Amino acid sequence: MSRLDREADAFRASMAAAASKLTGTTGTSAMSSAVKRNLAPPSPSPSVGSTTSAAVGTPSRRDRELPGANIVYSQPAVTGTGDSVISQMAYAVTWLRGKDEPQTYHDVLSYLSATGRSDSEQEFFVEQMRRHPQIQWIPDPNLSEQTWKTGTYIHRPTIPNVRNKTQLIAYLQKKTDASGVSVKDLKDGWPDCEPAITELEREHKVLVIRAKKDGAARMVWLDDPSLFHEVEPDLVRAWSRVELPALDVIAQKLIQAGQKPASEDPRLKAEKMPKVEKKKKRAARKGTKSTNTHMEHLLKDYSHMKR
């Protein structure tokens, strides 16, 4: 018997003695079989059931206690909408556009539900409002020193101080050029201006260009009512009954009278003319050096000696 076998038998005997003391039994057959089972070598790889339960089952307590275990890093940190300064400023401009009276900073922040923010955030937003091109800050005249909480705010339209028919006529009269006014710019400070523009057009005080699709006003110019003269209906009917000759007949009669028709397009006349193809002449080569000088007497032109 080898040394290893003797040590294994001694170990089994000690384990059997310890088991008999704990259980109060002296049977060694059951204990020896149990010891043999416990001394079996471990499996070289984990079982399929254990790996499946560990991968698919509920997370362990350690994973649940980690602070960043449930964070989805594929999503942005801020998923809300309308919380940025740009969005809040756009809402503030739209709200001030519909107000006729100046509003305080507290009124604007109350509309935006931002009164619960810290003073530093509110001050930053107020500073951005004062820099915005579509918002006008009116300082408090009763205070010598202004803070970020003082003053009022009002919408600054693209065309200022034009909110009725009288102001529109005055603005058009002050223009120094013949350019028109965009109705889109008028609506920035006067949203319901189209009915007033239609009334001024009927009174011949403005000239209006409208869209062909829906007839909406697009551009407005100043008009003079004194230049408008109403024509009698009989004259309009008589004018409509006059038949005009065809354009070809009018052009022919003008040519016979020695006049040039305005409808004659010189480009069309040039297209009707036949095109003469010009043959390109091959340019003579100049500056080349002759390499067959020893044969010049043979290359002379003797055609004049031909009978």
Automatic annotation (TrEMBL):
Coiled coil: none annotated. It is found in: Nucleus. Residues 262-276, 294-307 have a biased composition (Basic and acidic residues). The keyword Transmembrane helix does not apply. Keywords: DNA-binding, Nucleus, Transcription, Transcription regulation. PANTHER family: TRANSCRIPTION INITIATION FACTOR IIE SUBUNIT BETA, TRANSCRIPTION INITIATION FACTOR IIE, BETA SUBUNIT. Belongs to the TFIIE beta subunit family. InterPro entries: TFA2_Winged_2, TFIIE-bsu, TFIIE_bsu_DNA-bd. Recruits TFIIH to the initiation complex and stimulates the RNA polymerase II C-terminal domain kinase and DNA-dependent ATPase activities of TFIIH. Both TFIIH and TFIIE are required for promoter clearance by RNA polymerase. Pfam families: TFA2_Winged_2, TFIIE_beta. The lineage of its organism: Eukaryota, Fungi, Dikarya, Ascomycota, Pezizomycotina. This is Transcription initiation factor IIE subunit beta. GO terms for molecular function: DNA binding; TFIIH-class transcription factor complex binding. Residues 77-162 form the TFIIE beta domain. It comes from Podospora anserina (strain S / ATCC MYA-4624 / DSM 980 / FGSC 10383). Residues 46-56 have a biased composition (Low complexity). Signal peptide: none annotated. Tetramer of two alpha and two beta chains. GO terms for cellular component: transcription factor TFIIE complex. GO terms for biological process: transcription initiation at RNA polymerase II promoter.
